[in-house]
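Sat 14:20. Reprocessing the chain from the morning session after the first attempt stalled halfway. Input below, unchanged.
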Amino acid sequence: MEKESKQRFRLTKLERAWILYDVGNSAFVLMVATLIPIFFNALAESGGLTSVEYLAYWGYASSVVTIITAILSPILGTVADTRGFKKPIFMLCVGVGIVGCCAMGAASAWLPFLVIFVIAKVGFSGSLVFYDSMLGDVTTPERMDEVSSRGYAWGYIGSCVPFVVCLGLVLGAGAIGLSQMTALNIALILTAVWWLVTTLPLLKSYRQLHYVEVEQHAVRQSFVRIGQTLRHLPEDKQVFWFLLAFFCYIDGVYTIIDMATAYGTALGLDSTGLLLALLLTQIVAFPCAIAFGLLSARYDTGKLIKLCILAYTGITIFAVFLHSQWQFWVLAVLVGMFQGGIQALSRSYLGKIIPAERSGEYFGLMDICGKGASFLGTMIVSVGSQLTGSANVGVGSLIVLFVVGFVLFRVSCKAGIITDSVN
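Finished this time. Tokens:
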């Protein structure tokens, strides 16, 4: 029995190639959260922008990415479900992201830099729709939780490798005779090369197994299919309620991730300590994401997702009372413990309750829920902070999203039980 258990968790060559892509694209995510804003800030200052204008334009760019991705994701996802379409469109999105990552370093003014950033981020976000939907082709339903968890786990720890190199290059630029802008330029190219190299094994070995047959006017038919799916989605109660729940709780998760550094800065905490705490979150997330994958073999995925939502509720309450640097480090560890688990298990949970041949379509809708909801969390924090005059209370307001998400997820689980009993 023990031998069988070990065999069950031994990754196949295709599963390893799929996981490796997470290692590559996560390096870009970490750059966007840390060094790319520094690059833009330097260009903004040289262009005469004030700090207020810098933050405003950066926020506008992020919002544009969110809107474009939310519109394109279900469309591209539905087209990609057509036989032979998924891999080429995935390659196109990855190519746009990688070329954009390199091109950002060539921008000499803040406006061209922002335009290139938007294009690169849209390419990256689009690639994730196809990457997530490949899960059903890469592995079997009973292995999805484990493979999905390992993808996030290795993405967290793997992204630290180029990030540490790039961080050392930027911080030590003067010692090796480079300007900081040149060092940032090289860091962007290194990240793009890392992303490309880690993508090649998946491009070489992936084959689309589940698909919709090619029809005349494939693109037009894709719009027809997504229209039908949206009309009939409320009938599939388990998927419908899960997507609503995901919309709420994942927005709370993403808001905590995206606003952690800004929150610490608002509290007057040391910026270097905040950067190192972010790195610690990545390191802690690695073993914890793997642990959730192992736990999914023994416990119901739905129960583990509920545990993660409750944990984030507790993290939000803890953030209300955060005032010192050591508390922020504790927060970083707690977020790392559950961040990978809730993302990986949500991905595999959806993968197991949808038709495999329409995975791109459904993961496109999931991406809308994730990206489209990002306005809500930041708005809750902003409004809560302004009304109360406290950043702590603003962040604490996110508890509403986790409570509502927990309730809706329970409804989804009950709907799944009813559906199984009827079948």
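Residues 1-7 have pLDDT under 50 and may be disordered.
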